[in-house]
Amino acid sequence: MIAGFLLFLGGCSKVEPERRTRLMFDTVVSVTIHAEKGANTGEIFAMVWSELEEWQKALDAYDSSAFLFELNLTDSFTTSNPRLISALETGHEYGRKTSHAYDIRVGGIVRLWDFTGEGVVPSEESIEMALAEADHPLEIHSVTDTTNRNTGQKNTSVTIMKSRNTILDLGGLGKGIAAEGAAKALDTIPEIRRYIIDLGGNIAVGGKGEKPFAIGIRDPKAPDDVIAKFQLEPGKACATAGDYQRFFEHEGVRYHHIIDPKTGRPARKLSAVTVKAPNAATADILSTALFVMGYDEGMVFLKKNPSVRAAFFGPEGNHIGGNLEIEAVR
Q1: Cβ distance 37 to 14 under 8 Å?
Q2: Distance CA 92, CA 105 (A)
Q3: 8 A C-beta contact, residue 216 and residue 4
Q4: Considering only CA atoms, which of 198, 191, 203 is closest in space to residue 233?
Q5: Given a cut of 60, is residue 7 above it in pLDDT?
Q6: CA distances from 152 to 115, 146, 148 (A)
Q7: Ordered DSSP codes for 148-161
Q8: Helix (H, G, I), strand (E, B) or coil at 34
Q9: What percent of the chain has pLDDT over 70?
Q10: What distance in Å separates the CA atoms of residue 187 and residue 202, rounded to the nearest whole number?
Q11: pLDDT of 41-83, one tens digit each?
């Protein structure tokens, strides 16, 4: 499921970059840090893993101890968890911005297809019923801003109101927003020269200086190969949505996991989209949204959002255009 990967970290130093990996968010998470000599990288990595674990604890829709799991069991839920609030508000906002090409209310539809299991082609009737549930309004209301008497820290609570049968799915932004959170934490550490955070192809990079990182784009039709590369500047992020990342086949037809919220079925206009954006949450969300939109509608969206760059790959896996400058590698 890894959509893009680092070709090289860039720069040279007597202190070698250190890379560590873990299985989180149902994927391989890789963090590479290039720190000053004498920096306590053990503590730095521990802080990163802790930050990512907090995001996972908040956003896992299948873990009964997660906040999102609890939210999906009811029609009204009040929370002060800042990560869940941030993810819900961000996802809800981009639902409007993308005319619901990205929509966090599609959880019930996604579960019908059982992409986390063997895969199932749902009946037309079940898809229509799930679409109706996903069309119910979602409301997010601020409740109170309270101040902790001991710490002086302000806590914001919100109430989420939805249909009881509407299942929210933050899979299209969870890895991105978690990578963004980890990047913000690393940005506070002066001993770090450069870093790259990769959550299954949702990549955030940062550090000192302006030298860009070189990022590879997988060939949609041969995912073990790199078809192109591009430059990713420190402080920015990228993500790829592709039909090869999670799928099953039934009667000779491939069904992938990127669902069009309007049809309840896998989007078919493209094979992949790579997005570069100011932050990892935006890159994650818009890679999904632009995949659903397709090239023509996607280019209209990009003209209205000049801070975002994207490369589109057609159904046959060929690069068909976009505003992201890429260089073919073969």
Answers
A1: yes
A2: 9
A3: yes
A4: 203
A5: no
A6: 45, 9, 5
A7: -TTT--EEEEEEEE
A8: strand
A9: 92
A10: 18
A11: 999 999 999 999 999 999 999 999 999 999 999 999 999 999 9
Strand stretches in 173-221, DSSP E = 192-199, 202-207, 213-219
231-261 pLDDT per residue, tens: 999 999 999 999 999 999 999 999 999 999 9
Residue 243, token pair as written in the block:
């039909």
Q: Six-digit token pair at 187?
A: 């940005």
- In the chain the domains, ranked by start, together with CATH numbers, are 4-61+172-328 (3.10.520.10), 67-161 (1.10.3980)
Which residues on adjacent β-strands are paired with residue 249?
Answer: 254
Q: What is the pLDDT of residue 6?
A: 46
DSSP state of 257: S
Closest CA to 285 of 106, 121, 164: 106
Going across the sheet that includes 327-328, the strands are: 4-8, 213-219, 222-232, 327-328
| DSSP classification of residue 104 | G
Task: For residue 83, give the H/E element and its range.
Answer: helix 82-97
Smallest CA-to-CA distance from 90 within 163, 140, 134, 146 is with 140
Residue 136 φ/ψ, nearest 5 degrees: -70, 145
Angstrom distance (rounded) from CA 155 to CA 148: 7
| DSSP reduced 3-state for 271 | coil
Q: Is the pTM of this model over 0.90?
A: yes
What would the two tokens of residue 26 be? 């149902």
Residue indicated by tokens 């801070």: 307
Looking at residues 104-109, what average pLDDT do you find? Answer: 97
